Amino acid sequence: MTGPFSARIRDGKKIVEYLGNRQYKKIHNVSARAFSKKILKERLDDLVTNKHYYHLHKIDNSIFLAATEYFHKLGAEWCNLPLTTLMISSPGEVYAGKKLDYTTDTLPIEISWFNNHKRIFLTESSQFYLELRLLTKDVNKVFSIYNSFRKEKADFSHLAEFQHIEFEGKMDFNNNVKTAISFLKYITKYLIRNNSDDLFYYLTKKEIKLLAKTFDNENIIELPLKEALKILYSETKNTAYKKFSLKNFGSWEEIKLTEILKGHVIITDFPVDEIPFYHNTSKRDQDGDLVAQNADVILSGYREVIGSGVRISDSVVLAEKARAFNLPLKDYEPYLKTRRFKHYQKTAGFGFGWQRYVQWLLRLPYIWDATHIPRGQYLPKP
Q: Aminoacyl-transfer RNA synthetases class-II family profile domain spans which residues (predicted)?
């Protein structure tokens, strides 16, 4: 099954074209429409009058049921976790060897906390706290379902607040990736069995039938980022892709790559200094570049829906990496301390973007229609 988007070049400009579904017509350039106050103002009436939100409600409910059922069968246990923290999960990515400032170049949402002089953050991810839970004796796999927050303006495929299903377990890289794909397959088949009428509101019967096999092995291609960039250069002749960096690997590139390779794509081996500090260094690649032991799952005709990786287990290496990323070590001390416990075991995990999956599944043009009450850069309404 193809996704909702196609990456095109028109008049020398990269555009993302929306391909339509049973409810929405094609859109020439989906990025041309911005998230707005008008969308928020009209949402309450839309919730009452638009059948879309009934079917979305049913889909959301089944995703929750399928996710908890999947993790229960896997032996993973749910965790009650905080949404406030001093430790954000994706600080200080570095481009061209430049240290980024912890407070101005990262995108957490800050809040005041009583009379404390220091401001705190809303969580970007529950990963740190899932890792902490795995220090408990005989707890080997855990998961959480919470809201996450990113201080980025909403666009066609991003919300400032979104639902995040996250997993962490005492397992290696390959088993973690297999678990992530198995999770996608499980919830998709659950929806086909239990929500066929809701799916049919958006998709044709042929598209629903194709969903049943969409996450079979033959529809998934795995390759390192460096190879992905080479493919994009070969296709476009854009010299920006000759540089081994995520700087020029955005929504257009993710969509285009799935179109070229004709399937879902798992991208591995990101440059270690451009992704969160806790990722384990896998190796030096054939060119001598240090790469991380991580993988992003990009769905066909869409974007990254799952980010995954193995965590650094060595306490000294983790502390050195934190310093290199310009982090306040005092704030991260609880996380750094986890590696110093004798019974600590290396873990891996993944995060699943709920609304992104729904947007892909239902072939929706805008992610703010993949949730009942979206949050972006404007004051909450309703």
A: 141-380
